[in-house]
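dumping these here so i dont lose them again. two proteins, back to back, each one seq then structure tokens. dont judge the mess
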Amino acid sequence: MGSDRGESLSPFLVYVLGEPTGGGAGLHPLGSGATKAVEHAARRGVDWLIWRIVTHERIPDGLVELRDRWTLGDLLTAHLALDAIEEIEEIGRKSKR
């Protein structure tokens, strides 16, 4: 895996895979509020791969549905979709300034 891996993966997967952040398109700098919250949750045993999806307002399925009906591919696709949605929303917020 090359050093450019962080530029080709979504922000969520960059975080999960442990790539350093701080630059690149759409990446949250290490130490941002979102990253700190995820790190804090992970230290307390929260599996963010699952709970990001379960707690997101755009995903109607709960933990039982996710556990019983979703595949790993479904889970990863949901993360990629949420990354894209969040990036589009951020672009929209910046354009309104």
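---- next one ----
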Amino acid sequence: MEKEQNNKPVAWRVKGKGSPVIEVLESFNGDLYFITEKDPDTGDIFCYARLRSMPDMAEWGWSNINYLREAYGRYMIWNVKKMAWGNINSYEEGLFESDA
């Protein structure tokens, strides 16, 4: 977790609610996956999926990171660096918030 200036941990959450996000994936076409749980052995993830083409259909659910990388293509989906998480609200106001 990031540390605020006063050494308090900063947690990022989807719409300010739920479990803290541990990883964010973004695809070339603007799809976003906010991961709150991840099994490193199987690649299974629990995430909030917000597809650019259907933002009103965003939902929480299980997926697999290996499947996503295969479906999008090796270089068409990537991890968003945590230092850039603050820019994600450019997609939708209030979509991703920190408790800082």
